[in-house]
Design brief:
Serine Threonine Protein Phosphatase 5, Tetratricopeptide repeat; 36% helix; alpha+beta; globular; Methylamine Dehydrogenase, Chain H; four-stranded antiparallel beta sheet
Length: 1026
């Protein structure tokens, strides 16, 4: 087959074929040629409606020239049958041989038609024999296929077990060949996703889900460890732990090696799903995780995202390789600009890929120069994970159009999907992996897409593009593929920079040849190649319109780093003792709702009098019991409710009161029983349904809470808090459609309620419905000008729309009414940082943390700002605090939510205290424990832990008093005896310490710490006697 515009010229050094001049106004255009090109692949997901996690994640594809004929062949990874799904024909992976631009499927004949549940693939010449081998990542046992070469008719041999990696049967996803130790052969990195087992308890006897639900979040499962396999002469050894790369907390998908710090060795970016990303800096063959400090672990808001696919290129032409990645719906895709010096900045909004990707759930992402003008454009493959997502979010769809962005040459992107022809044909497709190659050898890059459970798609690039130059690197001292080589092409006063690497996009691999768009230029003045071996090679006067085979020379000089990474010496700048003290002493800050005064009530003395005067009236005792419960006199309150039930066994309100009382005390089974009895006695009461909803919500049983809130609203259509909690529940699961419906119903019944307006504005903002959000916020500000959250969210919207003046005006208006608002101070500080006004921003961010020490986003931005100013010690300390809060984010949110739902929830205060104590926020922990004890003085764990806080602060008298009070209430509380012994020991009272440790052992004969302390004291006593 003759290519459409030119023949590819493959030469040893410099000779090429010219192409015609590009038109003055390029029109980028892609055409679906899947069937025409001979590709008939249909992906199998194994989906049966059971919502197994594995069914929605795959798969990817890899372009590579397995038979060395100069045409890119294509390997496509398939899924497999799962419980509840049986295919008519067992699915298997496919290898399409490229016969001059037309493909023939040969996978089974060549031995690579793996029938496992496939995820992704990577290709590389691991044995340096001149032909490309293939690795397949599976849900289950992975496969490594060795290419046996032309002598064996290009048959592949499964050498997985023979080379030492056959025992790995985890859920593998991304993979990449790279020469991490630069010893001249390819090592193999394998990313693993989740420790997963098929869900069984949610299935009915018929094998279907008992109730509709979305796919469970990845955070519902434990993460899985990664694996780095070092190539030792053709056998692989697991060196993950030895080189410092072992991590068990990741939920790993896309992985890519690139030299971000320009020190000559390949670093590793590991994208994690709903978990902070990792950036592993390669320090001469050992790795250090620097993602948080480098600025790529979290987005600009200080939040981890659902990173799927990853790619790398110099998007803005500054010589540094930038990172781009896809994320979950309502998160937006993210571009981290490499600012040099080991630092990145989230520029997603500024470069134009944020707002228009919010309503997409994206997987594949590829940098490619679609029009050959010399800058990398972007292709994004979209598709949801839930086939029935419209039931949960009417604004979402399972099939979603893909997107193509053109780069303006300065690193800013414009969505041209409709004009380029990729929007409508992909509207019903559910995209996953995407790979780029010049499959027809006509000089422009084409795109292949894998769609889950659907046909694959091959886009042919029909753009009348500019000139091109492609390089086919061949290592000699370096690995044969030249992976890790850095290439700089100098053309028309510009320098185009790229690195050759294995993995790209989502679980996929691109054309191994490196393509550079030269625009109108017919020649590259100079091509520089820095090989992984350290050898440098320079070519001059390189003609356009060719695929140039470049062989690594035998001699050279070591590569010099062109930029410095983050200093590895001792961090510079002032120390952080004041920050450490501020962290320890930062107070407990709770949502305003928990501090709101209770409505006026009849004085308790009057109610006691009424109960004495009317001892036979049940209602009087119910009112007294409610007042006693508000005073947290729970014993008396329960007795009063019981007295009411003795007088009237059908007094439903008494059971409601008992249910609330038991919930306060953490006796949830008793609470649920009492509330259900109330409903049985009087089905018209809304409150017991509402409280049951709160109980389920506090237990994170979100689906179970919904019908109770809905019933409460049906019985009492003006039930404000039921609307608020139900909408918040939906929003937490990103089920924005149901959340909006609830809030609209609430505002129809309560049109002046600003709480509902504000919550609706937040959801509109999350969905990029900015005009609707601003309208709601204007109503809130008009009703409550002092409402800081409304001004702050208004500013966020204007910042998202890149109107800094409007954002500043909103913040200044808010600060006039609330000058100490942490939200407003923090947002203004972040705005100023974006304008490079660090000196003005830093004091504002510091004030924000004083007002609210839990504001994670402020720690993140302040820490990054101090790092940029060279205050490494203080910057890293603040990022450590940010990381601590992020690690405990879900628990802090859950326990604060529980306190909002029920300000008398002693157990929620106790759990808050435990979290704060764990991260070293001792004052906040102390206050939380004291709040728990104010509600429930008999909460022994809270009192014991309060003693531990006193002990850490060396307030020995208070600590001893706390432990003694615990033991007065429960003489057999072993931990209090042990802690009391430690307090006595610090106070110099060894005899009392011995007695306390002895009593701890009597209470718990297995208490090893007490045994050890007692043994040491007795040994010391014996030594003193000698």
């Amino acid at each position: 087959m003759i290519p459409r515009r030119l023949l590819t010229c493959i030469v040893a050094l410099v000779c090429g074929c010219a192409v015609s001049d590009p038109p003055s106004a390029l029109i980028v255009r892609f055409v679906d040629v899947t069937a025409e090109a001979g590709i008939d692949f249909v992906h199998t997901s194994g989906r049966s409606g059971r919502k197994y996690g594995v069914e929605t994640i795959g798969s990817g594809a890899a372009f590579f020239d397995y038979n060395r004929d100069g045409w890119m062949d294509l390997y496509v990874v398939n899924g497999a049958d799962l419980p509840g799904y049986v295919s008519a024909v067992p699915p298997q992976n496919a290898l399409y041989r490229n016969d001059g631009g037309h493909f023939t499927e040969v996978g089974e004949n060549l031995g690579v038609a793996d029938a496992g549940y496939g995820m992704g693939a990577s290709a590389g010449d691991y044995d340096n024999d001149g032909d490309t081998d293939l690795f397949v990542a599976n849900f289950g046992r992975n496969r490594l296929y060795r290419n046996e070469g032309a002598a064996q008719a290009w048959i592949f041999a499964d050498v997985t077990a023979a080379v030492g990696i056959g025992a790995d049967e985890r859920w593998s996803t991304g993979s990449s060949f790279a020469d991490y130790d630069r010893d001249g052969d390819l090592d193999l990195y394998v990313a693993n996703y989740l420790h997963y087992e098929f869900e069984r308890g949610e299935l009915s006897e018929e094998g279907t889900l008992r109730w509709p639900r979305r796919h469970l979040a990845p955070t519902e499962y434990p993460g899985e460890r990664n694996a780095l396999w070092r190539n030792d002469g053709g056998r692989f050894v697991d060196v993950t732990d030895a080189v410092g790369l072992l991590m068990r907390e990741g939920r790993e998908l896309g992985a890519v090696f690139f030299d971000y710090d320009l020190d000559g060795d390949p670093d590793l970016f590991q994208g994690n799903d709903a978990t902070p990303n990792f950036l592993w800096r390669n320090d001469g063959g050992s790795f250090a995780e620097v993602g948080l400090v480098a600025g790529v672990a979290y987005n600009i808001g200080g939040k981890p995202e659902g990173t799927m696919g990853v790619d790398v290129a110099d998007g803005d032409g500054d010589g540094h390789l930038d990172l781009v990645m896809t994320n979950f719906q309502w998160e937006s895709n993210t571009l981290y600009r490499n600012a040099g010096g080991g630092m990145f900045a989230d520029e997603s909004l500024a470069v134009g890929i944020a707002a228009n990707s919010l309503d997409k759930l994206a997987f594949g992402i590829n940098f490619l120069d679609a029009d050959n003008d010399g800058d990398p454009d972007l292709y994004v493959a979209n598709g949801h994970i839930d086939e029935d997502i419209d039931q949960f979010d009417p604004q979402a769809a399972y099939g979603q159009s893909d997107q193509l962005y053109l780069n303006d040459g300065q690193g800013r992107f414009t969505d041209v999907s409709m004009a380029a022809g990729v929007d409508a044909p992909t509207r019903d497709l559910v995209g996953r992996g995407s790979a780029v190659a010049d499959y027809d050898n006509d000089g422009d890059l084409d795109i292949f897409l894998v769609n889950t459970g659907q046909r694959a798609l091959l886009w042919r690039n029909d753009t009348q593009a500019g000139h091109y130059l492609a390089l086919a690197l061949e290592g000699r001292t370096s690995n044969r593929d030249g992976y890790g080589a850095r290439v700089m092409v100098h053309v028309d006063s510009r320098t185009l920079v790229a690195e050759k690497r294995s993995a790209a996009s989502y679980l996929s691999q691109n054309d191994a040849r490196m393509f550079f768009g030269l625009g109108s230029s017919e020649e590259a003045e100079q091509v520089e190649i820095a090989w992984p071996s350290g050898i440098r090679q320079v070519l001059t006067g390189v003609r356009a319109g060719q695929v140039l085979r470049v062989v690594e020379p035998d001699v050279g000089m070591p590569q010099e780093a062109a930029d410095a990474a983050i200093a590895q010496a001792a961090p510079q700048g002032r120390d952080a003792e004041d920050l450490e003290q501020s962290w320890r002493e930062a107070p407990l800050v709770l949502p305003e709702k928990t501090r709101a005064p209770l409505p006026p009530a009849t004085p308790l003395s009057e109610l006691r009098t009424a109960a004495r005067i009317q001892p036979e009236v049940a209602g009087v005792h119910i009112e007294l019991a409610a007042a006693l419960a508000r005073e947290r006199a729970y014993g008396e309150a329960e007795a009063a409710y019981r007295r009411a039930l003795q007088l009237d066994a059908d007094a439903a309100q008494a059971y409601v009161g008992l249910g609330k009382l038991y919930a306060d005390r953490g006796a949830l089974e008793q609470a649920v029983a009492a509330l259900r009895q109330a409903i049985a006695l009087d089905s018209t009461l809304a409150e017991p349904h509402y409280v049951l909803g709160n109980i389920h919500l506090s237990q994170q049983r979100l689906a179970a809470a919904v019908p109770f809130y809905e019933r409460a609203i049906a019985l009492s259509p003006r039930y404000l808090q039921a609307y608020f909690n139900l909408a918040g529940l939906h929003a937490r699961q990103t089920d924005y459609g149901p959340a909006i419906d609830v809030l609209r119903r609430g505002l129809a019944a309560l049109p002046d309620e600003v709480e509902l307006m504000l919550q609706l504005a937040r959801i509109y903002f999350a969905q990029a419905q900015y005009e609707d959000a601003l309208a709601q916020l204007a109503s809130v500000v008009q009703a409550q000008p002092t409402r800081a959250e409304a001004h702050e969210l208004t500013a966020q919207i204007w910042m998202t729309r890149e109107d800094a003046d409007a954002a500043r005006a909103a913040l200044q208006q808010g600060l006039e009414h609330a000058p100490n608002s942490a939200a407003l101070l923090g947002r203004l500080g972040i705005l100023l940082l974006q304008e490079n006004a660090d000196a003005e921003a830093i004091p504002l961010l510091q004030r924000a943390l004083e007002a609210d020490p839990d504001r994670e986003e402020v720690y993140y931005h302040l820490g990054q700002a101090l790092l940029r100013r060279g205050e490494a010690v203080r910057g890293r300390k603040l990022l450590d605090y940010f990381h601590s809060l992020q690690q405990e984010h879900q628990k802090l949110l859950a326990y604060k939510t529980a306190v909002v739902l029920n300000p008398n929830d002693a157990d929620a205060y106790y759990k808050l205290g435990a979290v704060y104590a764990r991260i070293g926020r001792y004052e906040a922990a102390s206050q939380a424990y004291q709040a728990a004890l104010a509600v429930a003085p008999g909460h022994l764990d809270a009192r014991n832990n309060l003693g531990n806080i006193y002990l850490r602060r060396r307030a020995l008298g208070l600590a001893i008093a706390a432990y003694q009070e615990v033991l007065r209430r429960d003489p057999h509380y072993a931990r209090a005896h042990y802690n009391l012994g430690n307090a006595y020991l610090l106070a110099g009272e060894e005899e009392r310490a011995v007695a306390a440790f002895t009593q701890a052992i009597e209470a718990d004969p297995e208490h090893r710490k007490a045994q050890q302390m007692l043994a040491r004291l007795r040994q010391r006593e014996a030594q003193g006697e000698r």
